[in-house]
Amino acid sequence: MHTDLSPHLHTPYCNQLINELKKCHEEKTFLKFIGACNRFDSAVVKCLKAERIARSAANRAKAQQRQAELKRRLYQSS
Fold this sequence. Notes:
By secondary structure, the protein is mostly helical. The chain has one domain. It has helices spanning 12-27, 38-77. The protein is rod-shaped and about 70 Å long.
C-alpha cells in the first residue's frame, strides 16, 4: 500500500511513475496479480522514499534553526 498518490503531493518525476503504474494496472488487469507491473511499483516506492527522506531532512533542518533561535532568545533575555 502506498501513501496518498495525489499529484499535488509529489514531484513531476514521481507523478510520471505513478501514472505509468496506474496505466499498467488498467491495461493488465489480471497480469498485475502475477507481477506484470512490479517494476513500475518498485520505481514508485523508491521515488516516494526519496521524497520522504528529502522532506524529513528539510524538516529536521528547520527544527534545528527554530531551536537555535529559541536558545538565542533565551540567552539574550537573561
